[in-house]
Specification:
Strand content: 5-15%
Order of helices and strands: HHHEEHH
Structural class: mainly alpha
Distance between the termini: 26 Å
Oligomer: single chain
Radius of gyration: 17 Å
Number of helices: 5
Strand order of the largest sheet: 1-2
């Protein structure tokens, strides 16, 4: 398992909420206190996470609050980001078990057939 900073965990949480459809375009971002309680972090880490989401283009700041930008392009980019990360982590974990790429693929194929 790859270590993720608290800022990355917060960003990942929001990104997965967007991908799952729980958060929509124009929704208000959760309050900072939500993040400080859920992730047990200092508000500074929440600010860093919000900054990274603004840079990634799926959060913007308005006069009174932070809001989400959700469209097909953002969802596609987030899905690509997560699928690539999950695949890389899977392959790294398989390698740490002594399984090469081909063995890892065979394992996936067997699992896919078993799970239907």
């Amino acid at each position: 398992m790859t270590y993720r900073t608290k800022q990355e965990e917060i960003r990942d949480f929001i990104a997965l909420e967007i991908i799952s459809g729980k958060l929509k375009d124009g929704d208000k971002l959760y309050a900072k206190t939500f993040f400080t309680n859920k992730f047990k972090v200092n508000p500074h880490y929440v600010d860093l996470a919000i900054s990274s989401m603004i840079k990634a283009g799926f959060v913007f700041e308005d006069i009174d609050y932070y809001y989400l930008i959700v469209n097909d392009d953002i969802i596609r980019r987030l899905k690509d980001e997560f699928s690539n990360r999950f695949i890389n982590e899977f392959l790294d974990n398989m390698k740490s078990l002594g399984l090469d790429y081909d063995k890892a693929l065979r394992l996936l194929e067997m699992r896919g057939m078993a799970n239907g």
